[in-house]
Write a structure and sequence with these properties.
It is built from six helices and seven strands. The protein has about 160 residues and is α+β, with helices and mostly antiparallel strands. It has a three-stranded antiparallel β-sheet. The C terminus is likely disordered. Keywords: Oxidoreductase. Its cofactor is FMN.
Amino acid sequence: MIDRFEVYDVTSFINDRPGGSAAILALAGKDATKDYRTIHPLGLFLRHAWANRRRTAFITPKPLQDRASRQAQTQRSIPLRPRVFIDCRKCDLSTEFLGLKLGLPIYVSPAAMARLARPSGEAGIAAACKRFKAMLIISHSASMTTQQLSQTPIQTTPSAGNSTA
């Protein structure tokens, strides 16, 4: 509840309120100062020791703008220096994970609804992993069996320079 720009956590006593919780819940997330002050006397929170339940202060737009401005200024102050480009056409991305040699440092775990994206479903994902030597872990709720996925053929497409048409 927000009362005079202060935010209070009323969850611990909302059900014990004599008027019930409906009035407070109707104002959830809104400034309840006007509605609260027309019914309750000034200082009710203090008299009932509820002031210690205050959790945070209400944030006005100005501090948010200041913070965003400081963050943007900090990001602009970080120097980004251009580096010399190197030939990356023949990069080796292979790695080893728990003794398994991988062509790419990528792990794929398709879920059972892969067929919604493509009719081949997990078989298409398995074929891509096999082609690029990426790690594949099959879900127990897959739409295909482990044997079906392990027998998935690799479908290669000829590159533009090696077309045999």
